[in-house]
Amino acid sequence: MSNKIALITGGSRGLGRSTALALAQKGVDVVLTYLSHADEANAVVAKIENLGGRAAALQLDTGDTSTFSFFTERFADTLQRMGGRQSFDYLVNNAGIGIHASFAETTEDEFDTLMNIHLKGVFFLTQQLLPLIEDGGRIVNLSSGLARFSLPGYAAYGTMKGAVEVLTRYMAQELGPRGIAVNTIAPGAIETDFGGGVVRDNPELNQFVAASTAMGRAGLPDDIGGAIASLLTGDNQWITGQRIEVSGGMNL
To answer: Which residue in the list 12, 18, 143, 247 is annotated as catalytic?
Structure first.
């Protein structure tokens, strides 16, 4: 019997990379997408192959819906090549960017960029992939703690993530008859290069996050990758339509 297969958008770095490796360690084959860092994506593929798994990397701009049909064809070919499959099991909508700007100073272009990647892209890429997702499959959409609590500079970003949480519930309702569970993982502040690496590289901000978090530190990528892998592959099959915050208890 062939392995389960996961598609992870934005899988070359940060949370996507951690999720890819966590799933590979559980015996799941991985297809990851990247926007421009092919070398980093290929390094993740090589690492998974060294673990004994199968993996592939495909270029995708999740903010450009006009490319989704062609991507889906390439993805279907990749599934066939990896394991003779015509379908896949797990979709992780992870790709994203951070734009830090106050509400008063956010431009329409910045708003549209965030909308296209974080909401419109998630909506229409998932829609495009529905025929390939196995009945009984699993979808995880990435949100943020910033959809629950507010920090200056993230009005547009937090708004998109709030919309993703609503979308997740609708997807769970409509895909439930196919046995497909859809949930949201909402990370807190994580030490990655996201947003220019500010949580990781700015000591004052890192200390602020640690002081605001019940567990006493900022999050690490593996905190999130492990949680996503557990939700997808563990004994959590009756959970759907839920927002699961993985923040170490930030701003409780």
So the answer is: 143
The rounded mean pLDDT for the chain is 95
Q: What is the pLDDT of residue 206?
A: 87
Whole-prediction pTM: 0.96
Residues in the chain: 252
Q: Is the pLDDT of residue 194 over 80?
A: no
pLDDT value for 2: 66
Catalytic (active site) residue 143: yes
170 in catalytic set: no
Question: Average pLDDT of 28-42?
Answer: 97
- Relative to beta strand 5-8, strand 133-142 is unpaired
Q: Quick check: is 150 catalytic?
A: no
The set of residues, in sequence order, having a beta carbon less than 8 Å from that of 182 and lying 6+ positions away, is 138, 139, 140, 141, 168, 171, 172, 175, 240, 241
Name the catalytic one among 12, 161, 212, 247. 161
In the chain, domain spans: 5-246
Q: Are the beta carbons of 229 and 11 closer than 8 angstroms?
A: no
5-246 CATH choice from 3.40.50.720, 2.30.30.90, 3.40.640.10, 3.30.1330.60:
3.40.50.720
Q: What tens digit of pLDDT does each residue of 131-172 get?
A: 999 999 999 999 999 999 998 899 999 999 999 999 999 999
Please give the pLDDT value at position 202.
Answer: 80
Q: Which residues pair with 182 in a beta bridge?
A: 139
| 157 is a catalytic site residue | yes
Considering the candidates 18, 157, 212, 247, report the single residue annotated as catalytic: 157
Active-site residue identified among 144, 154, 212, 247: 144
For residue 84, count CB atoms less than 10 angstroms from its CB and return exposed for 0-12, middle for 13-18, buried for 19 or more: exposed
